[in-house]
Amino acid sequence: MTNPNTSPAPPGDDDQGDRQLMARVAAGDRQALAELVQRHHERVWRLAYRCARQRQDAEDIAQDAFVRLWRAAGRYQPTARFTTWLYRIVINLCLDAKRRRGRQTLRLADAPEVQGNEQQQDAMVEDERSRRVQQAIDQLPDRQRTALVLHRYQELSHQQIAEATGWSVKAVESLLVRAYAALRQSLADLDGL
């Protein structure tokens, strides 16, 4: 029977297994840590990349997240899903990294001339579209961007986002409404958004 107070697991997620691995990590089991890294590295890296927008920064944040996981394993209390706890570490590291380096503006590369066949042109249009969407996301305030990334790209529910960030569910909902409205406004000239 599922506990109605907990959020459903994302596909392929094994919270009970993660909790058991964390108990082993708390006891100093490095193999258990390696298993957690193997299970979650890709999702942690993707979340870090969505926040940091630099591959090297994302890799550094992902590594730091697992180092923090190792150090905090003895204090881990499974009051929420394991991934919620792990994502909170990643988000905090992303916010710390951003504060350290200050807000950087992204520069779009000059668009190359459109040549070639229709398939290449469609790919270039889609690349430009993706750049525009990412630029619009990057312009959102930190809290809106964090909520949007967790909702849209990590596919977390409002409750899971609240657990991962420490914000109320109402705050998460408000942030998402404002984030999506801002994106619709800044991307109004793009078809299909």
SSE run: HHHHHHHH
Annotation, overall tally of beta strands: 0
The radius of gyration over CA amounts to 19 Å
Question: Quick one: CATH class of the largest domain?
Answer: Mainly Alpha
Total count of helical runs of at least 4 residues: 8
Query: How would you describe the shape?
Result: globular
- The first-to-last residue Cα distance is 39 Å
* CATH architecture term of the largest domain: Orthogonal Bundle
* Multimeric status of the protein: single chain
Structural class of the secondary structure composition? mainly alpha
Mean pLDDT score, rounded?
80
pLDDT < 50 stretches: 1-12, 103-116
Kindly estimate the percentage of residues that lie in beta strands according to DSSP: under 5%
Number of domains: 2
CATH topology of the largest domain: Rna Polymerase Sigma Factor, Chain: A
If you had to describe this structure to a student in words, what would you say it looks like?
With 193 residues, the chain is mainly α. It folds into two domains: 12-102, Rna Polymerase Sigma Factor, Chain: A (Orthogonal Bundle), CATH 1.10.1740.10; 123-193, Winged helix-like DNA-binding domain superfamily/Winged helix DNA-binding domain (Arc Repressor Mutant, subunit A, Orthogonal Bundle). Helix content is 68%, strand content 0%. The chain contains eight helices and no strands. It has helices at 15-26, 30-52, 55-72, 82-101, 118-138, 142-153, 158-165, 169-186. Helix 2 crosses helix 4 (82-101), helix 3 (55-72) crosses helix 4 (82-101) and helix 4 packs across helix 7. It is globular. It starts with 14 loop residues before the first helix and ends in a 7-residue tail after the last helix.
